Amino acid sequence: MTGIVDFLIVLLLLTNLRILGSSRIPACISAVALQGVLLAVILVSLSSEPLWGGTAAFALLLLAVKGVVLPWLLRRAMRDASVTREVEPFVDFSTLLLLGGGLMGLSFLIARPLQVSAPPSTEKGLLPSAFFTLLTGLLVIITRRKALTQVLGYLTMENGVYLFGVSQAIREPLLIELGILLDVMAAVFVMGIVLFQINREFDHIDTDRLSVLKE
Amino acid sequence: MGAILAFAAAGTVAWSGRPMVIPIPWAIPFGSLSFGVDRLSAFFLFPIAMVGGLGAVYAGGYLRRSSGVQAPRFFWFFYSIFFAFLLLVVTARNGLLFLMAWEGRSLASFFLVMVEHREPTVRSAGWTYLIAAHLGTACLLALFILLGDRNPTQDFEGFGVSGREGIRSLLFLLALIGFGVKAGMVPWHVWLPEAHPAAPSPVSAVMSGVMIKTGIYGLLRIMMFLGEPTLWPAWWGWTLVGLGALSGVGGVLLALAQKDLKRLLAYSSVENIGVISLGLGLWLCGVRVGNPAMAALGLWGALLHVWNHAVFKSLLFMSAGAVAHATGTRSLDRLGGLIHGMPFTSLAFFAGSVSLCGLPPFNGFISELLLYGSALAGILQPEGLRRIPVLAVGALGLMGGLALACFATAFGIGFLGQARSEEAAQAHEVSFLIAVPMGVAAVVCLGIGLMSPLAVAFTSFAAFDLMPILPGVIRVGGWEIPALFQRILVANVALCVMLVVLMAARRILLLHRRVEESSTWDCGYAAPTARMQYTASSFIWDILAMARVLRPRVKECRPLGLFPRSARLGTEEQDIFQRLFYNRLWRGIERCSDRLRRLQEGRNQIYVLYLALTVLALLLWKLGFSQ
Fold first, then answer.
1. Domain extent listing, chain B
2. What is this model's ipTM?
3. A137: closest chain B residue by CA
C-alpha cells in the first residue's frame, strides 16, 4: 500500500509545480482537477480496512466536485471572460518554479516536528505535501494578476487544507471535509459570478487594476 | 415626565441605599461572576451610593428645565448603567468581571459626557476621554493577565504574587498607569479638565466625586495582591509621593489660571487626587521603614480624603451647575454678585470651598490633618527616608495655600461683588430638587468634620486589611490619635458655637440702628460700575506671576502715563502637559501612521503576501527550529 500512496503523493507534488510553472490557464485548471482526483484516490487507498460505504461515498463525492464540477465551472468562466493566458505575472515563471522548490524544502522542514504528534499510522509524505500544496496556493494567489488564476490558487490552497485534515484525522474526516467542500462550492460560485460581472463591467479581470477602491 | 424622572431618582436612591447596611464581609460566589463586599469595598460603596443618589435627585431637577439636554431618556438610560457599573466595579471579586465593569463604566460615562453632543467642544472632549480611558484599560488588561496567569478562574481569592521583585514592580507600574489615568494623576490627567466641563453637571459631580476614586480603589485592591507589604520596594512610595506632589501643585496652579468655573473645579480634582496619592505614598514609605504611625495616618488620611473629596467636590459641581443653569454662563468674568440672587447656592458653594481648602470645622481639615500627622511622624523618626515626608509637608502646605487662593478667587469673583453681566444680575434661586442634594452634601461635609473621631474610626476599619502592623496606640509627637480627635471635636463645636454667638450678637447690636448697604469695591466713587471690580485674571495675577513655569499666555497692556487711557490684562491658560507633551506625541503618532499607510497598497496580492509571510514566519518559529 505504501508504495501506491507514495506514488500518489509525488504526483500531487508535481501537479503543484505544474500549477506554479504554467502560463496557460486551461493547463492550470486541468492540474487542479487532477489534484482533486488524486485526493480522492489517496483517501481510498489510505483506508486500510475493507472499503467502508461512507468513505467510498465521500471519495466519489470528492471526485465529482473537485474533479468534474469545479473544473467545468472554471472552464466556463474562462470561456465567458475569454482569457486563456496569464500574461505578465508579478514574478516570472522560472523564478516561481525555483521558489516552489524552496517552499517544498521548507514544508519538509516544518512538517518534521508535527510528524511526531500525528497518529502513528500516518504516511510520511502526507504532512509535507499538505503544507506544500497550501503554500503553493498562497504563492499563486500572490503572484498572479488574473482573478481566475487567483481562484485556482484558492482551490489549491484548499486542497492543501483538506490533505492536512486527512493526515491528522484519518478516522473521522467526513464531517469536517463535507463542511469544507460545501464552503469551496459556495466560494467558487460566488467568485464565478463576480468574475463574470467584473468582466462585463470592465472588459478585463486583472485584479491589480481594481486597486482604486483601496480607501 | 417629571413624575417619571422623580420615580427613577427615587428608585436609584432606594437601590443605592441597600449596600449601606452590609459593611461586614460577605461574598456570593456565582460561577465566575462573584460579587462581594469586604471592608475596602464597603468603604468605597458609601460615597458612590451617596453621590450617585444625590446626583440622580439633582439631575431630576436639572433636566426638567434645562435647555441644553435634548434627550432626557437617553440621559437616564446611561446614568443608570453608569451607576450600576460603578457599584459593580467596587463589588466585583473576579478579574474578568472587574474589567468588564470597568470598561462598561467608561463607555457609559463616555455617552454621558456626549449628552450635549451638538457642540463641537463637547465632542472633542468626549473623544479625548474615550482615548484616555482605553489607554488605561490596555494597561489594566496586561495587569490582570499577568496577575491571573497561574489562576484559571481569575477570582480575586486566587490572586497574589509572591514572585520576584521585578515582576511585582512591573505589576505595580501597570496598575499605577492604568488606574492613574482614570484617577487623573498629573502626567495622565489631560482628559479630566476636558471631560468634566463638557458633561452635564450631575454627571460631572458623579464623575469627579466618585468615578475617579475608583482608580484609587483599584490601586489599593491591586496592592493587596502584591505580596507581603513589608517587602514592597521603597521606590514605590517615592513614586507615589512624587506623583502626588506633582499632581497636587500642578493641579492647583492650573486651577488658579482657569476662568471657567467647572474647568477650575476639574483641575482642583487633579489636585485632590494628588493629595490622596501623597497619602498613599506616605503609607508605603511608612510600611517600608516600619513606622506604624506614619503608615497608618497616611493611609487613613488618603482614604478619608477619598470620602471628603467625593462629598465636597460633588457639592461644588452641583453648585456650579446651578450657577450655569441660572445664568447660562460658566465664565467667572461674566458672573459676580450671585450671593444676592442665589443665597442658598452661594452658601453651598462656600461650604464646599471651605471644605476643599481644609479649613475647620469642615471635613477637608480632618483628612489633611491626618496627612500632616503622617508626614510629621515620618520626620520625627530617628533615621531612614526622612526627605520624603519633608517633601510631602512642603507640597501639602503649598497646595493648601494655593487652593485657598484659588477658591478665594472663585468665590470672591463669582459670588461676591457686583454682577458683571445682565444674566448674572437676573440670576434666580434654584428649584427644590436641585437644592436638596446640595443641602445634604453640605451637611455631610460639616458632619464628617464634626464627627471626626467616628470618621477616623471607620477609616481605620476600612484600612485594616492593608495594614500589616497595627500598634495599639498611635502617637505623633506626644499626641495620641483618638485623644487628639476628641479634642478637635471639642474645638470644632466651640468654633461653631462661637460663630453662631457672634452672628447673633451682630444681629442684636444692629437691631435698632440704621444699616446702610453699598456695593463692594466702589472705591469711594459715587456711581461705580461693575467694570471697576477685580476680574479673575487681575485678582490672581500676583500668584500667577510667580508661577512662570506654567507659561500662561498673557495679554497685558499696563496703564501708562499720569492719565492712562486704557489698560487691560488677560491671561489664558492651556495645559502645559497638553501643550508640551501630548500634542507632540499625537503629532508623532500621526506621522508614523502616515508612513504605515504605504502598507495599505490596494492590491489583493500584496495583502495575501502579508498573510502568507506571517503564517510562514509563525510556522518556522514554532516548528522549524524546535528540535
1. 1-227, 233-509, 535-572, 580-624
2. 0.71
3. B612
